[in-house]
Amino acid sequence: MRISEKILQEIQSKTFHTSDKLSLVGLDGFVDKIVTPVNKRHGMGEQFDPIETIADLGSRISEAAGKSANLELFPRFEKLGGNGPIMANALLSLGLGVRYVGALGKPSIHPVFEDFAEKTNAISLAEPGITTALEFKDGKIMLGNMVSLEEIDYNQIIQAAGEGPFLDLLSKCDLVSIVNWTMIPKMTSILQQLCDKVLPNLPPRDNRSFFFDLTDPAKRSKEDIMEVLQVISRFQSHAETTLGLNYNETLQVCETLGLGTGDKSEDSLKKMATDIRRKLEIACVVSHPVDSAACATKDGAWWSEGPFTDNPKITTGAGDHFNAGFCAARLSGFSPITSLALATCTSGHYVRTAQSPTTNQVAELLKQQDNLS
Structure pTM? Predict the structure, then answer.
């Protein structure tokens, strides 16, 4: 990864400015059970060969058709999960103030969220979902139970937070990040009511921004995706709005909007981000495959290679860390290209260590990757 002179100069002349920033993040919450599928056992505990790739798992399952199979899932650890909590934790590590609204347990906070809820003065809306995450070298398969998220709607948010305090909180936030639309059935309605009832009543604020992540909308209909994209575009009239997409999501959104699709090359990613941004008429669209990222604003399109590793310690949550890094960098005044590079390094540090990085660790990884090139 060779970073440009422009990025080097910018990270040498600027620093993250996050300590005075406040973010509101929501609305999901999951207990993540990270597991490794077992291929061959040689003894007890971790004495086994893992199934290393998703393709290998697919072959194992296909071979069982018409017969049967027994697949062992070796437990690694249990942790806080969900796109919102993981992104919020990353923002906390990067120095932002964070308030969280989402599914962390009801009537009491689930033990895995207790520390997080205290740090974010959280407002809990429902019981968390449960995700069993099968991790491989080339990605992850996430098996979810999310029936509890069906309870979350606009009225419940207002009841839990209080209408006045909720409006006051939104008015003070520099960043409002609403993620995991796919798994919250009433999310589109919530966003519509925010546009209709809340945003017009907020006092003007120059540096307010909105960030959205659909989160793997493949199981939702084209009509549902189109509807939420149209609602997201409405937020732009109230503040700078960014839509974050991984590569598959980029393809799905392009297909929904009737736009051309492309591969993971620099030119294709930049073009798809540009086309989506123009179609939705929002401030920014980000597209981030595993090993690179592109974004488009009204001023142009940019691309950055990422610090890819063949042996990640964890992959669940990598995209959420990318989103946090990008938002924190943009709030700090970094240019789009440097924000992309810092976002890929926020994600890169996390997958290498399974820990959310500080701003110093993000900058150091960026410089280290350049030295290794």
Answer: 0.89
